[in-house]
């Protein structure tokens, strides 16, 4: 696939894809004999993983480290596992904070809805 096709498939810019490759959050992409990026299925897998991790708030540095280790082979599985476990823990903490914030907002919204309902009945 061309960079344009990958850009359209995932809804990200071609510049973002180039940045991902430059910054190491995806490995170097396969190229044609003339040097044009030619994304293979394995390249797409890296793009999907990177998008997932970035959408989850994982830093570029952490993703690049994970990719670097993955490219070194099976001897780095424990290190990669530790990175993913650390990121998962961070996401669970964020989830807990978000749930608490949502609960508080739901409480306040319900309170104001009740007050508006009462005011509406008093106006009649």
Task: Explain what you see.
With 124 residues, this protein is mainly alpha-helical. It has five helices and no strands. It has helices spanning 3-10, 14-23, 41-55, 60-72, 77-123. Helix 4 runs antiparallel to helix 5 (77-123). The chain is elongated, with a radius of gyration of 22 Å. The relative contact order is 0.08. The mean pLDDT is 95.
Describe, in short, the structure shown.
Helices cover 75% and strands 0% of the residues. The protein is an all-alpha fold and 124 residues long.
List the topology elements.
Layout: H1 3-10, H2 14-23, H3 41-55, H4 60-72, H5 77-123
Question: What are the salient characteristics of this protein?
Answer:
mainly alpha, about 120 residues, 5 helices
What percent strand?
Answer: under 5%
Number of strands: 0
Total of DSSP H or I helical runs spanning 4+ residues: 5
The average pLDDT is 95
Rounded to an integer in angstroms, the radius of gyration calculated over CA atoms is 22 Å
Oligomer: single chain
Basic shape? elongated
Could you name the ranges where pLDDT drops below 50 across 5 or more consecutive residues?
Answer: none
Largest sheet composition = none
Topology order in helix (H) and strand (E) letters: HHHHH
Class by alpha and beta content: mainly alpha
Distance between the termini: 65 Å
In helices, the fraction of residues equals over 70%
């Amino acid at each position: 696939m061309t960079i344009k096709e990958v850009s359209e498939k995932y809804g990200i810019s071609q510049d973002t894809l180039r940045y991902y490759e430059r910054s190491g959050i995806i490995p170097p992409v396969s190229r044609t004999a003339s040097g044009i990026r030619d994304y293979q299925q394995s390249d797409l897998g890296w793009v999907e993983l990177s998008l997932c991790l970035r959408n989850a708030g994982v830093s570029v540095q952490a993703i690049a480290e994970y990719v670097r280790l993955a490219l070194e082979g099976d001897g780095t599985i424990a290190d990669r596992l530790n990175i993913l476990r650390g990121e998962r823990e961070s996401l669970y903490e964020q989830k807990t904070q978000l749930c608490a914030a949502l609960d508080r907002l739901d409480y306040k919204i319900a309170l104001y809805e009740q007050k508006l309902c009462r005011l509406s009945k008093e106006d009649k």
